């Protein structure tokens, strides 16, 4: 029997053997075929499912909802509209997180630029910064 051992499947998907067994046990992954010696043998389709489950998990989808999504998939094509709705919901949440992260990054960059400017000014003319601080009565802003 051909296919991938659990070690190979774990390496190819970047997940642990424990997670692969867990996905199968929880019904997220269809029962994996076994070789005559009883060892799991994963197919390319199995690995594709694992990668899709990783994607769902990375969106923040809880295991419970992943199980519901897998059940919709197994129920047939009449559930495609429901699947689209679920994925669209997680897409919207992901886009919102990305926008918030972009805002955080922009604000962090502004602060870094400020501090780098302070360091450059201090390296160039340390006495000028000290004079400005004395004149204002306050240390440089953080």
UniProtKB/TrEMBL annotation:
<dbReference type="InterPro" id="IPR000551">
    <property type="entry name" value="MerR-type_HTH_dom"/>
</dbReference>
<keyword id="KW-0238">DNA-binding</keyword>
<dbReference type="InterPro" id="IPR047057">
    <property type="entry name" value="MerR_fam"/>
</dbReference>
<protein>
    <submittedName>
        <fullName>MerR family transcriptional regulator</fullName>
    </submittedName>
</protein>
<dbReference type="InterPro" id="IPR009061">
    <property type="entry name" value="DNA-bd_dom_put_sf"/>
</dbReference>
<feature type="domain" description="HTH merR-type">
    <location>
        <begin position="3"/>
        <end position="72"/>
    </location>
</feature>
<dbReference type="Pfam" id="PF13411">
    <property type="entry name" value="MerR_1"/>
</dbReference>
């Amino acid at each position: 029997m051909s296919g991938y051992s659990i070690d190979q499947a774990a390496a190819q998907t970047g997940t642990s053997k424990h997670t692969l067994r867990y996905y199968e046990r929880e019904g997220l992954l269809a029962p994996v075929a076994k070789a005559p010696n009883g060892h799991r043998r994963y197919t390319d389709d199995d690995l594709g499912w694992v990668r899709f489950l990783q994607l769902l998990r990375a969106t923040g989808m809880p295991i419970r909802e992943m199980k519901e999504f897998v059940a919709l998939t197994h129920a047939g094509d009449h559930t495609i509209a429901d699947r689209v709705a679920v994925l669209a919901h997680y897409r919207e949440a992901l886009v919102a997180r990305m926008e918030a992260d972009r805002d955080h990054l922009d604000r962090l960059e502004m602060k870094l630029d400020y501090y780098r400017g302070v360091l450059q000014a201090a390296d160039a003319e340390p006495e000028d910064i000290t004079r400005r601080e004395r004149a204002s009565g306050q240390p440089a802003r953080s």
